[in-house]
Amino acid sequence: AQSVTQLGSHVSVSEGALVLLRCNYSSSVPPYLFWYVQYPNQGLQLLLKYTTGATLVKGINGFEAEFKKSETSFHLTKPSAHMSDAAEYFCAVSAANFGNEKLTFGTGTRLTIIP
Amino acid sequence: ETGVTQTPRHLVMGMTNKKSLKCEQHLGHNAMYWYKQSAKKPLELMFVYNFKEQTENNSVPSRFSPECPNSSHLFLHLHTLQPEDSALYLCASSRAAGTGETQYFGPGTRLLVL
What we know:
- The structure holds two protein chains of two kinds.
- Chain A is mostly beta strands.
- Helix content of chain A is about 0%, strand content about 55%.
- Chain A has no helices and eleven strands.
- In chain B, strands 2, 4, 5, 6, 9, 10 and 11 form a seven-stranded mixed sheet that branches.
- In chain B, strand 5 and strand 6 (about 55) form a beta hairpin.
- At the A-B interface, strand 4, strand 5 and strand 10 of A face strand 5, strand 9 and strand 10 of B.
């Protein structure tokens, strides 16, 4: 079984400030972890993912996330927020074993950028 | 660039209607998925097809009937829906199901059941 918890359904940051979106997961097997972004009236777009190897993962648009096994966390960060980052962000987990294709999503965090 | 298209983008239907949602992927993938996105709830996986075979039915009511005629096309047939079925229905595809393959999503069909 696996689950995802995203702390904070709404986060507001000033333009140019640090963005931190929190994600904690639970999984009975080694996890694959994902961050997706959804802009209004659009589908989900992959920002980054962790499967194996380096625990600090860099994605598109200047975002990165660090897999911390001891904390069961995969928080998303960006050093300097831009107005175009306003969107909804979803963390997701799947099990790292062949044949288990279930991708479990969190409830999402809506990011607002304050000019 | 997703390479996954969905039609229609918006759909309003009565509870006695029959309609179909269509998804097409242009990425050469072999797995396709249907998700339901409702307000205030996590995305819910509905169905998975891997190489045209259904490999997951996540306890979805029979009023939703998927069809996957080939690896590029996926349909969701709808009949006698309920107002609580109103949601955004998202289609996704990946190279194959499982093993952490990235899923690419379409823009979704926003469905309203009256």
